[in-house]
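Handoff note, outgoing to incoming analyst
You'll be picking up this chain. Sequence as last confirmed:
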Amino acid sequence: MLIRRRSRVAAPVADAASAGALPPSVLDGDALQRLRELDPSGKSRLLARVAQAFETSLERLMPELRSAWQAGDLQGVRHVAHTLKSSSASIGAIKLSSLCAEIESMIRLESRDGLAARVESMDRETVVVLQALRHLTDGPSP
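Most recent structure output, in case you need it:
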């Protein structure tokens, strides 16, 4: 096992584990391949280290997002979305990155129509992405 610690990211609206098998599109294969090419032998465990760093970021940022959202601090929400946008893309979490970009743009344009749904979707998608990363780095569960 490469990553043993489990996330304490707050409970999502839906548990990704209950959804069954992971959809193949959760993590973009091209982005993962680019990471693998940076460590062709796997000796540096780059993919596992990147996954762990991403998980650590989520553990810090998602509570910030929820607090900002509950307080009505849209600039705080935008900051979290902006921060996660590129790191999500770099690990191949394209849907999460896209949600972050939409949230960031909506707040910048002061458009609130559908914002709550996107924030909820972002929250759920972080759980799905973490599960996919663990599956990738730990291997499938028996």
